[in-house]
C-alpha cells in the first residue's frame, strides 16, 4: 500500500494535457496506484446557443470530446498503470471536488493554464476552485503554451512576466 492508492486525473483533452497525464502516470507507478481519469461534460458552456439548436446534437459532441480525452489518457499511460475512466455531467470544478470527496481518492493531479491578472479574473480558474474545495491534496501541472523559467520572474504573479529597467 503506497502513499497514494487512487489518483484522480481530471482531463478536458486540451493542449498540454499530455504533461499532466504523464505526471499522473509517474506518480501512479511510484505508488502502485490506480488512475481515475475523469471527464466532466460541461453543458453550461452551451447555454447561449439558439433555441433551435438540438440538445441531443450538442450532447453527442460533448460526449465525443469526452471519449477522445479519456482515450488520450489511456493511450499515454503505460499498461503497467491501472486506469479507470469516468464521465459525469455538471460544472467541472464542482464535479471534480465531488468525485474526490465521494470516491476513495488520495490525490488530484490536474492541469492549470497559469493565467494571471485580468484573464484569471474574467475566466476564473477550475484548478484554483478545485484546490480550494478539494478534501485531498491537489498537484497542479502547468499546461500553458509557453514554459516559464522560474529563475526569470520570481516576483511575477502566476502566468505574468515582469519587465525591469536598470538606470546607470
CATH topology: Rossmann fold
How much strand? 15-25%
SSE-based structural type: alpha/beta
Output the number of helix runs. 5
Ranges where pLDDT stays below 50 over 5 or more residues in a row are 147-168
- Summarize the main sheet: 5 strands, parallel
Helix content: 25-40%
Global morphology: globular
Order of helices and strands: EHEHEHEHHE
Q: How many structural units, i.e. domains?
A: 1
User: What is the CATH homology-level superfamily?
Assistant: HUPs
Mean pLDDT: 80
Just name the CATH architecture. Answer: 3-Layer(aba) Sandwich
Tally of extended strands?
A: 5
User: Order of strands side by side in the largest beta sheet?
Assistant: 3-2-1-4-5
C-alpha termini separation: 60 Å
Radius of gyration: 18 Å
The level-1 CATH class = Alpha Beta
Describe the structure in your own words:
The protein is α/β, with parallel strands linked by helices. The protein has a single domain (6-142), classed as 3-Layer(aba) Sandwich (Rossmann fold). 38% of the residues lie in helices and 19% in strands. The protein has a five-stranded parallel β-sheet, sandwiched between helices. The chain is globular and about 40 Å long.
Topology (elements, then pairings):
Layout: E1 6-10, H1 17-31, E2 34-41, H2 55-76, E3 82-89, H3 92-102, E4 107-112, H4 117-123, H5 126-133, E5 138-142
Parallel strand pairs: 1-2, 1-4, 2-3, 4-5
Give a short overview.
The protein is of the alpha/beta class and 168 residues long. Helices cover 38% and strands 19% of the residues. The protein has one domain: Rossmann fold.
